Amino acid sequence: MFDTDIKSLKSLNHYLQKLVENRLWLKVIIALFLGVGLGLLLSPQNGWITKGTADVLGNWLALPGMLFLKLVQMIMIPLIVASIITGIASNDKENLKKLGGGVLLYFISTTIISVTIGTILGLIFSPGKYLHQQAVVDHEQALANTAESTELSFGINDIPTAITNLLPDNPLASMVSGEMLSIVIFTIIIGVAVLSLPDDLLRPVKLLLGAIQEICMTVVKWAMLLVPVAVFGLMAQLTSSVGLNSLSGLGFYVLVVLIGLLLLVVIYLIVVSLLGKVNPFGFLRKIRDVQLLAFSTTSSAAVMPLSLETAEEELEVDPAISNFIIPIGATVNMDGTALYQTITTLFIAQAYGLEMGLMNVIVVVITIVAASIGTPAIPGGGVVILASVLSSAGIPAEGIIIIIGVERLLGMFRTAVNVTGDLTACMVFNRFYGNKPAISPKSISKTKKEYSTV
């Protein structure tokens, strides 16, 4: 009997290994649930361990995740520079004019759509009214500790300066400080200049940039080996520090945000179907690895290498299209973040009992559309911009502390939506400007090529 049990366990173990082999999405899902389970066990709310011990354990558990993020961020800037310039240099000038203008118009349009959805949901459901004024009073001490955030502002008078600051005085300094939007604009300018080179000079530049891109992707493949462990540790740390009780009071607000993000994904699928002429369910199946990794890391920048690989190998997007759209989209196309910021701004205003007129809402919408373009593609980047949005609307920026308990949770969902929007844009523009055929309904039945390195 004992031998039979051992054989059964071995068979089960063999089956599980076969099941998760080369399936990154399944490994991530398993790691998510295991991390949440361990985090709940380690939560100080259970009374089993002290908060100090839980924090120490959480930091050690999050170590693989932090190493993964650092490893990817380490090569992010050279990858962005090489990808954008390669994407531009791979197009002719006339095609680039059409592609560049179309991408800009597309990104602005989807951002406006996302902000509109957020405004409508925020005004119809009014989630802030369900948060008692006492909830604000209970956070007075925490608000006092975050008083410095009121200094952030973004008004009409700041727009000329903000536009001027988009061009970096020193590109190397921008790379050191991680000013991604300035780096992207600088790279686009250099890419257009490279396109004007004669063929004998353009060829070695392409070879050099292609080599840099391959080197960066090799480092990314090494980093991808850490993904399941990284997700497990990050989720365990998050759950142990936040717990479940602190999330319950904000449940309706979270629900409204999730409804908005779901509506945005539905719009993406409609766009993929109508403009990209692609089966939307096949599209979702092929990008699930990217979505799950974005959900786990809450960083569009960290997911960018996998987005590039997925666009080219799974979605069969022309590399000239993906190399141009995805690095730019990871920086300026933050539809999920824009929707979140809109609902959150209205939520905090309602929680403070502030009545917002039509002009106040319009100011909020315009500010969020402008500010979302510069939202850092890093964990917590949306909160930094949100503080300036609140200040510009006359809402206490300290109100961010009200939603800080669920911010990371919502950040996971909105980041997954952000990368979905970038890949949607790739499918749309690949149909009109790409040289490689997009995925068709017939290709859905084909076996999915898995990442051999994971």
TrEMBL record:
<protein>
    <submittedName>
        <fullName>Dicarboxylate/amino acid:cation symporter</fullName>
    </submittedName>
</protein>
<dbReference type="InterPro" id="IPR001991">
    <property type="entry name" value="Na-dicarboxylate_symporter"/>
</dbReference>
<keyword id="KW-1133">Transmembrane helix</keyword>
<keyword id="KW-0769">Symport</keyword>
<keyword id="KW-0812">Transmembrane</keyword>
<feature type="transmembrane region" description="Helical">
    <location>
        <begin position="103"/>
        <end position="125"/>
    </location>
</feature>
<feature type="transmembrane region" description="Helical">
    <location>
        <begin position="384"/>
        <end position="406"/>
    </location>
</feature>
<keyword id="KW-1003">Cell membrane</keyword>
<dbReference type="InterPro" id="IPR018107">
    <property type="entry name" value="Na-dicarboxylate_symporter_CS"/>
</dbReference>
<dbReference type="Pfam" id="PF00375">
    <property type="entry name" value="SDF"/>
</dbReference>
<feature type="transmembrane region" description="Helical">
    <location>
        <begin position="180"/>
        <end position="198"/>
    </location>
</feature>
<feature type="transmembrane region" description="Helical">
    <location>
        <begin position="219"/>
        <end position="238"/>
    </location>
</feature>
<feature type="transmembrane region" description="Helical">
    <location>
        <begin position="24"/>
        <end position="42"/>
    </location>
</feature>
<dbReference type="InterPro" id="IPR036458">
    <property type="entry name" value="Na:dicarbo_symporter_sf"/>
</dbReference>
<feature type="transmembrane region" description="Helical">
    <location>
        <begin position="358"/>
        <end position="378"/>
    </location>
</feature>
<keyword id="KW-0472">Membrane</keyword>
<keyword id="KW-0813">Transport</keyword>
<feature type="transmembrane region" description="Helical">
    <location>
        <begin position="250"/>
        <end position="276"/>
    </location>
</feature>
<feature type="transmembrane region" description="Helical">
    <location>
        <begin position="62"/>
        <end position="91"/>
    </location>
</feature>
